């Protein structure tokens, strides 16, 4: 005869084992689902916004950065390390030579604290040329390092043409020349200006470096 008690115990043990297996499967399935949800899908491409490297194009913002470095200075030549990264070696050396001329050196220590105030910039994208109308202030001293009776915030204006050349995937200043803009333009000059983009005006007040 079959031992009914023993048979019942076997059935209960079987049911317990089946319940443990079911719970284990449920736990494993839940864990796998959680990992899949946390792991990004490699097959799905993610779009990332990449910042355009400065200098890969002649833009108003890029030109403005150069103008800020070029015009803002404590004294003559103090800003060379700031405008150097924007210029070709030849243009930089030409600028240094100009600053070393006796006529220019005569103002060293007397015309100080030059600050760029604003710049209106026109871009000729085809020829990589920028035309900049800049406004800046200076302090004029009667004696070097003596601010007694100094003329502060003397306002000046200048218009320059900046020619760029591309070196190692970056546009650098290759030539700077002052130009004079008059109210009455010739037909040829008007045609030349028509190739320029609309002006982009930015105003910036630089603090003391």
For the record, give the distance between the C-alpha atoms at the N and C termini, rounded to a whole number: 105 Å
Give the low-confidence spans. 42-51, 201-209
- Output the structural class: alpha+beta
Helix content: 25-40%
**Average pLDDT for all residues:** 80
The beta-strand count equals 5
Order of helix and strand elements from N to C terminus: HHHHHEEEEHE
Q: Radius of gyration from the CA trace?
A: 36 Å
Count of DSSP helices? 6
Strand order of the largest sheet: 4-3-2-1-5
What does the largest sheet look like? 5 strands, antiparallel
Bin the strand percentage: 25-35%
**Global shape:** elongated
What does this structure look like?
The protein is of the alpha+beta class and 209 residues long. The chain is 35% helix and 27% strand. The chain has a five-stranded antiparallel beta sheet, covered by helices on one side. The C terminus is likely disordered.
Task: Tell me the layout of helices and strands.
Blueprint: H1 4-38, H2 60-71, H3 80-83, H4 89-99, H5 102-105, E1 111-124, E2 129-140, E3 151-167, E4 170-178, H6 187-193, E5 200-203
Antiparallel strand pairs: 1-2, 1-5, 2-3, 3-4
């Amino acid at each position: 005869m079959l031992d009914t008690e023993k048979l019942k115990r076997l059935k209960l043990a079987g049911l317990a084992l089946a319940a443990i297996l079911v719970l284990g499967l449920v736990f494993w399935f839940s864990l796998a689902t959680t990992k899949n949800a946390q792991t990004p899908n490699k097959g799905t491409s993610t779009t990332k916004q990449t910042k355009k490297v400065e200098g890969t194009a002649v833009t108003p913002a890029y030109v403005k950065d150069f103008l800020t470095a070029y015009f803002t200075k404590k004294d003559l030549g103090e800003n060379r390390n700031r405008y150097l990264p924007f210029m070709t070696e030849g243009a930089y050396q030409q600028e240094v030579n100009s600053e070393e001329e006796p006529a220019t050196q005569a103002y060293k220590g007397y015309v100080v604290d030059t600050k760029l105030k604003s710049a209106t910039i026109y871009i000729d994208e085809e020829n990589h040329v920028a035309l900049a109308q800049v406004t800046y202030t200076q302090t004029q001293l009667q004696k070097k390092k003596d601010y007694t009776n100094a003329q502060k915030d003397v306002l000046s204006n200048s218009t320059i043409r900046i020619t760029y050349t591309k070196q190692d995937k970056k546009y650098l200043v290759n030539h700077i020349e002052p130009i004079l803009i008059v109210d009455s333009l010739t037909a040829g000059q008007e045609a030349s200006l028509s190739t320029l983009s609309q002006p982009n005006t930015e105003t910036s007040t630089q603090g003391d470096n």
